[in-house]
Each structure stands twice: as C-alpha cells, then as structure tokens.
Amino acid sequence: MSIRHGLLALLERGPRYGSRLRTEFESRTGSTWPLNVGQVYTTLSRLERDGMVVQDGEDDAGHDLYAITDAGRTELHTWFGTPVDRTHPPRDELAIKLAMAVGAPGVDIREVIQSQRRHTLKAMQDYTRLKAQALADVPADRDEVAWLLVVEQLIFQAEAEARWLDHCESRLVRLAEAAATEPSAGPGPAATRGPARAPAERSHSQR
Questions:
Q1: CB 40: neighbour CB atoms within 10 A?
Q2: Is the confidence at residue 90, as pLDDT, over 80?
Q3: What are the φ and ψ backbone dihedral angles of 104, each rounded to 5 degrees?
Q4: H or E segment to which residue 141 belongs
Q5: How far apart are CA 121 and CA 125, in angstroms?
Q6: CA-based, 20 to 30 A from 165: which of 119, 132, 159, 190?
Q7: In angstroms, how far is CA 45 from the centroid of its own chain?
Q8: CA 5 → CA 11, 51, 124, 154, 183, distances in Å?
C-alpha cells in the first residue's frame, strides 16, 4: 500500500496538515489500513525532500499546511496510470505458513487449513455486513464510495482465500491417496547386483 501516493492524492484537493491527512486517509479507506501521525509526518518529510510537497504556511489554528507541487502532481498521475506490479508479489504469511507446514513434524496441516478457513469465513461475513450497512443508504460522497470499493475488495479477497484453502485441502487428500496406493518397492539395485557377482567370485576361487 502506498501511503506516499495516498497523501499526494489527498493534497491534490488542497493544502492540508498532518492530522487532517490521517483522518481523511482513514475515512477514505474505512480505517482498513490505519495510520499514525508519525507515519504521516515522516512521509511528508520525505515528500518534501523529494520536491513533491512544500510547506504552505499555517491555518487559522496554527497547523503547518502542506501543498502538492507540480512534481508531486506528475508523480501522482504517473502512479494512477501505472498498473500495480504483480511480478514481485508481497510475502503472504498464510502461503508461507502452509508451505512450511507441509511435512513439518507434529503439525496437522489439515487442521491448520481448517482453522484458517473458519477465520477467513468469519472475516468475509463481517465484511459483507459492513457492505450491507454501507448500501443501506445510497453513498452520498466520494469517501463513502471509496470505502465501499475497499470493503468489496476485502470480500473478494476473502472469497479467493477460502477457495484456495479448499484447493489446498483437496490437493493434500489426493496426494495422501496416491501415496497409499503406490505398489511396494521391488528388489533394489544392490539385491540385483548380488547374484551377478557370484559367478565372478566362483571363477576367481577356481583359479
């Protein structure tokens, strides 16, 4: 998630101070990715260093205001026009957990899957409830529409995760069944080589 570009998008609507940027960011995303003021001001400092924002005086309450620059606006619109890179996906804790659980001593991977599935389905139900609440009234402003998009993405993500967990469990069942039906191994190479050496040994003893 790009906090940097999110703040630039908010600043394009006009100068703002740090706490207001945090409030508007969380309102737009439904507090799905909460920020603290320290993160906001650290990001603003870096944006200022990179020439993307400048300090723009104070408001009536004495808050330091920040404004987007032309360079910041160019950066923002480049971000909007560039697809999110999927060639280097972020680390996914669940995928790593299941990969490490395969064959791990004392770990019942099917129980790990079932436990995660219960959690994922519960989260999906919670997100669906939030969506229903958001749709109870027609979204009235851009923040409500933005939050609806975010919560729907969370629902789709949870649905995909639940399907993937079902797939993982099915694959493990098929692998277990295949292993159980494999024929017993025949004589190994060493057993085959044993009789073959016997004539040579007998021939040597006759000499």
A1: 23
A2: yes
A3: -70, 130
A4: none
A5: 6
A6: 132
A7: 27
A8: 10, 14, 28, 21, 59
6 to 1, 96, 113, 141, 186: CA distances (angstroms):
9, 29, 35, 18, 64
Identify each DSSP E strand in 27-166 by its residue range.
53-58, 64-68
Tokens of 27: 């309102």
Q: Give the pair of three-digit tokens for residue 205.
A: 């003893």
Q: Are strands 53-58 and 64-68 parallel, antiparallel or unpaired?
A: antiparallel
Q: What is the pLDDT of residue 202?
A: 46
| Dihedral sign, Cα of residue 40, residue 46, residue 48, residue 53 | negative
Task: Compute CA distances 124 → 109, 129, 152, whole Å.
Answer: 22, 9, 10
Instruction: Find all residues with CB under 8 Å of 4, minimum gap 6, and list them.
Output: 43, 46, 47
